[in-house]
DNA sequence: CTGAAAGCGCTTACAG
DNA sequence: CTGAAAGCGCTTACAG
């Protein structure tokens, strides 16, 4: 059996409460006694029991709120699976977790929900933010003034007082794509990028990482630059039609976000599936199918489950154990899939 | 706050003990009462508190044993990190975990330790087995006769009564390598496999998966077959020297196990690093460095941490919650790394 | 077949 | 500054 608080109390000749005060820095204790108890605990290798702690904490009813924007998208549905698993786990320790879904992007609604959660005495909030000045101010207010820690996931608002960000290192994702593109084109020929919006920071970062790494590591590749398909398959298809027309020797396409179906449709029409290598992002159903049947060559993804799961759990550790995340940035793994390890 | 046992007891007009008996199928309860209580619990969505359960279980002192062969190898050192994390977690819930390391392969020692653990009343054992008839018999005896569940990890003994296996799907790993090789050679040219021993089942399975998938998906590739380097870098180097001599147009090498350094040394001497694509296995330091500096093109790996972590946790869930693993095979992800997502 | 009680290892008012 | 006690949600002998 492991050492308990009581055993340390006996060793030190004090009560359990005193040991608790010493070990958890609760104050109201004579410094000498505190030091002595800490030394004993260290010497005997005391490790607090999570079970005991959890049970005692159950009285406090820690409340964690989650605000999930773009909840209708396939990626966020996977994130939701991770969120729900973490909800179950945290709740089995006596916390309660409320997940609020928003279809699309709606900072006004996010702000409303945050205010509501504050009035309902939530202890911490995880949210997938969007670029919005009011939201930025509110995150700082919650973090600093109200003492309600905020975790951003999926996309970040870097210059805020958020506890940490959980999501992808988008630049690295783009570099990884560049590495794959370099390999499968043998470092030669024309390639092109199809992206969503110029204003989408994470897609832009993927493209930046890709561009940079192609120029550094594969200088023989002729990178034709970026086209924007505005997250629309129809637009993506038209653009691809044009591209294929203009560059009959095109060797590869890197798709930073959505539009994959449109691109593939165009290649299909032109009977170019075999000739042009496709690297796309995100393990959503359509993409997985296109990977399985060989239309796409590689998919790069972020671990959606981990994003959801960790968002809640890092808040839980903070509120429950007063343990801060190891870093302000919790990057999820960049995962490469071909059709065999999917 | 979540529903508690007590609340269900109040609802049903019985005592806590009776609810416990009903919900956990402990018998000694009138069937009608049991049904009624179960219905109530279901209706109100009762979820047991892990914290409460853990504390109550702490009295039992669940003991989990781990036997780690080949503990001196880099891969198993990573497994050990996962084992230690799970040990901490399980112990914080009142279990105790003993990890026994063995350098190299020594079934006799494994068996000795198992017997010792039995006499010390261990409740479950996780072990990385080797092919050995006595060991196979003993696993069955522990599982069936002594009622001590056994989990195999890293390599499996399939026809035993072990609770489950945690590790890699080696065939799929080989297929994944084939997919990469097909892409980076553009499906053409001569390739060759360098493996360890013919008797190593998991290396053999990797090679089988690779061979099969190359012939199916990339029929234009000229697969020159397998050479065995007996897990020795010096041998691997000599073999590669010969191969390069004999096949000046070789396009790719798939290395199923160790010997990577030797192969690369040979390529270096022949100044062929740029011309010959290398796909190797396992995220060990030497390999990671060779990947980073561009000598190797891809590394395929198993999640060593997960292997260690899950080995203990699945036993813990079994012993603690009487919850069996979802399947007899818990395959870890097959991970592809290039030098950007390492 | 059922209930009352003790106890698992913590935290937290409360009393001093 | 310190101690004694109650309580978190379970499980488990024990008594009936």
Q: What's the layout of helices and strands?
A:
The structure is a homodimer.
Chain A: H1 5-12, H2 16-23, H3 31-44, H4 50-57, E1 63-68, H5 74-91, E2 96-101, H6 107-119, E3 124-127, H7 133-145, E4 150-153, E5 164-167, H8 170-184, E6 189-195, H9 201-217, E7 221-228, H10 233-246, E8 250-255, H11 260-269, E9 277-281, H12 285-292, E10 298-302, H13 304-321, E11 329-331, E12 334-337
Parallel strand pairs in A: 1-2, 1-3, 3-4, 4-5, 5-11, 6-7, 6-8, 8-9, 9-10
Antiparallel strand pairs in A: 10-12
Helix pairs in contact in A: 1-2, 1-3, 2-3, 5-13, 6-7, 8-9, 10-11
Chain A binds a DNA duplex (16 and 16 nucleotides) through α2 and α4.
Subcellular location (chains A, B): Cell envelope
Family (chains A, B): Belongs to the bacterial solute-binding protein 2 family.
Pfam family, one (chains A, B): Peripla_BP_4
């Amino acid at each position: 059996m492991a050492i308990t608080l009581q055993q340390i109390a006996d060793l030190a000749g004090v009560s359990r409460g005193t040991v608790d005060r010493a070990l958890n820095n609760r104050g109201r204790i004579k410094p000498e006694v505190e030091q002595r108890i800490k030394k004993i605990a260290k010497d005997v290798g005391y490790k607090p029991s999570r079970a005991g702690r959890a049970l005692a904490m159950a009285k406090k009813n820690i409340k964690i709120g989650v605000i999930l924007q773009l909840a209708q998208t396939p990626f966020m549905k996977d994130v939701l699976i991770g969120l729900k698993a973490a909800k179950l786990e945290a709740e089995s320790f006596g916390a309660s977790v409320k997940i609020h879904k928003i279809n699309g992007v709606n900072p006004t609604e996010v702000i409303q929900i945050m205010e509501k959660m504050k009035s309902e005495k939530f202890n911490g909030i995880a949210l997938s933010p969007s670029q919005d000045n009011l939201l930025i101010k509110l995150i700082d207010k919650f973090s600093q003034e109200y003492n309600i820690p905020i975790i951003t996931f999926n996309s970040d608002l870097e210059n805020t007082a958020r506890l940490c960000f959980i999501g992808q290192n988008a630049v690295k994702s783009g570099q990884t794509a560049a590495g794959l593109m370099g390999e499968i084109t043998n470092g030669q020929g024309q390639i092109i990028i199809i992206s969503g919006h110029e204003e989408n920071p994470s897609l832009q970062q993927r493209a930046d990482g890709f561009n940079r790494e192609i120029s550094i590591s594969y200088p023989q590749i002729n990178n034709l630059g970026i086209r924007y398909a505005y997250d629309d398959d129809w637009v993506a298809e038209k653009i691809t039609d044009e591209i294929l027309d203009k560059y009959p020797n095109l060797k590869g396409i890197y798709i930073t976000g959505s539009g994959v179906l449109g691109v593939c449709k165009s290649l299909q029409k032109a009977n170019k599936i075999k000739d042009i290598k496709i690297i796309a992002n995100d393990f959503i159903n359509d993409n997985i199918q296109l990977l399985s049947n060989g239309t796409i060559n590689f998919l790069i993804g972020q671990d959606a489950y981990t994003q959801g799961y960790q968002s809640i759990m890092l808040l839980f550790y903070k509120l429950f154990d007063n343990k801060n995340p190891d870093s302000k940035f919790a990057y999820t793994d960049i995962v490469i899939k071909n059709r065999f390890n999917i």
